[in-house]
Amino acid sequence: MTQGTAHIQPNGKKIAKTVxxxxxxxxxxxxxxxxxxxxEQFNEVRNMFGYTGTYKGKExxxxxxxxxxxxxxxxxxxxxxxxxxxxxxxxxxxxALQDNxxxxxxxxxxxASTNSDYVDQYNLxxxxxxxxxxxxxxxxxxxxxxxxxxxxxxxxxxxxxxxxADETFNARWQRMGILGIEMESAALYLxxxxxxxxxxxxxxxSDHILRNEATTPEERQNSFTQMMEVALEIAx
Length: 236
Fold this sequence. Notes:
InterPro entries: DeoD-type, Nucleoside_phosphorylase_CS, Nucleoside_phosphorylase_d, Nucleoside_phosphorylase_sf. This protein is α/β, with parallel strands linked by helices. The protein contains 7 helices and 10 strands.
């Protein structure tokens, strides 16, 4: 285990084997303050807050990833390869694409399609499909059902573009059954696979892209508690 990197400086504080990773560092702070006990902050570099504590006696860390594949690509790579983390569960918001998916529903990302070139670094002789760890998918679905959450399991899109000049972009991904769009999970799944580690993305639907429905920033930061509870319950 390294003493620190340019992006993560624990200064002797422990990082758990399982890390919950929202995009927003303030969501990480919210989880630490409202769900964890015996909390210690292990990172504040670039205001990318990271905390370790216990949840029902289990040691769990939570840390922001920032926005986009380059950002989570750095943080998840370092957690897996430099800090001995075994599992990262991304908890975030996404925009829905399918008619049967509604605001506040939970999407469990079995796969993460992408328009990113992140996979090119592996120089594979074909197209690789980034997938979540199946055991985590199954546990998350069972836990979400126990909580009475409306869930959807399937393929999401990790997009490099938030504002896309191609006006047909969303409709074409909808046609291929993509449940929702976010911006990070493909890199997380690729890093996990390459490091022989585990990863999962769990999302609360914050907006419906085709209906112009949306939640507020405050709701995204503080109100997506079912998703947080699912991730905490399945943390090893």
